[in-house]
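Render this sequence as a predicted structure.
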Amino acid sequence: MRAAATPSVGSLFGRISLGYLVVESRKLAEWQRFAGEGLGVHSDMTSDGVLALRIDSHQRRIVLRDGAAEDVVAMGWQLHDEAALQLMLRRLREARIAVHEVHGEEASQRGVERFWAFVGPKRVGYELFTTPLLASDPLNMKARGFVTGDMGLGHVAMTTREPEATLRFFQTLFDARVSDTIEDRLNGVTLELTFLRINGRHHSMALAATRGRRMNPLRTAIHHMNLQAMSLDDVTEAYRRLRAMGAPIANAIGQHPNDKELSFYVQTPSGFEIEFGWNPVIVDAAAEAGWQPAHYHGISLWGHFPESLTLGAKVGQMGRGLASLTHPEFTVRLPA
């Protein structure tokens, strides 16, 4: 793998990555079959009552615990050294954001030694850690492998009614850089998307907002999370397995214009989606030096045709979008 840009002592860029996700669900048995037989990742129902999904040496990359949310409730962000952690904690203190340290059983549930927690945009828990717990037993999965390392666990995409504040949150606290932007018209609404990188991965976070009146058509905190497979065969085989299982394929195989990732989207038992992809652009040190954000029209170069979008689903999205106008979205507003 090509190296990303050399980290700067005064910046978190290149020193932070998405480490894990915590999901609450009443459907752990469905999730275990979906993850193990469909996605082809390693899954363990653990003694502490959670379903732990693995894709590399980390004990837990996706933690599914019993709960009614049917949603992602927390994101773990790995700081790559103690100095980076202290820099982030100092920034949070200066922004007057309440942070508390967690260790013991709750940290073990995440597969880390300890973490520092605060409330992020849309009231999702943001959890900072430096030291993951590593697994001693080999992976048992259908997939050949996934790309993680210093670039972390794929990416997360979310809709927001507060795109300016959320963008400032990531740029100010995480030193995120804009990779590029896309606009597209979906279901009669124009979406504006901003893709943010915090290391060599093209984006670790994508923000989507409706143009004009800001609406949120989604029930869940995120639209999707991404898993980057090591081989094209893993993508096509997972696609066939999931379709054969009857899992709702949200979007068939296609390719994005900006990161060039070839992928498909599948709906999880909790309702948000997983993008299963291969071979996206990596912004290595050479590319970073001259990177200029581009703007694209259309979310896909080809493919990604919806397979499970019914009229009822479209009506439901519109209803949720209109309902979202009746209440404010929680966001983290940083001091000027």
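Summary. The chain has a mean pLDDT of 94. The chain has two domains: 16-129, 149-324.
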